[in-house]
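Justification of computing resources. Each target in the renewal requires a structure prediction run like the one illustrated here; the chain below, 177 residues long, is used simply to show the kind of job we budget for.
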Amino acid sequence: MSMPSTPQTAAGDARVTALAGQRLLQITVIGAAMTVIFTLSMLSTAFLTTSEAGPRTLDMDFRVFWAAARLVVQGEPLAAFDMARLADEHGFGAERWMPWVYPPGYMYLIAPFGLVSFATAFLASTVLSLGLIALALRPFVAGNRVVWLAMALSPAFIAALVIGQNSLIWLAFWQAS
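Resulting structure tokens:
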């Protein structure tokens, strides 16, 4: 998507192109590597832990999204608002309080996650988050791929990625609107 050329856009593009250079490339590689390493380690943990007998999920934010999606697939979407039922679905007791605080319609958007295992859904959510944020950032990088990579795989996203938070998806949709 191309943004109309205005004096403000031209000034912004000039600032982005001024970032080109070897130093930015080095910083980008280090930052992107940190993001990828931390995210892959959490995804690996999810696959290893939930493949053993016992835990179905990890104690992280994504467990609520996955459990609500499973309830939608089972035909019980309103059960997500019942803390005990939601806790039963994701496998942690209600004392690990993490309620469903999203509108009911959001459950239908994430319902496909309920069709697969926790680890597979977590992987899909992570890839979706990174893909959508990368697309949303494209208009702001003036065609500079190094700046785009630096922004799309920013270490600032690590916290959201490793706990399975949906903030990057919301940010990407907010920017697109």
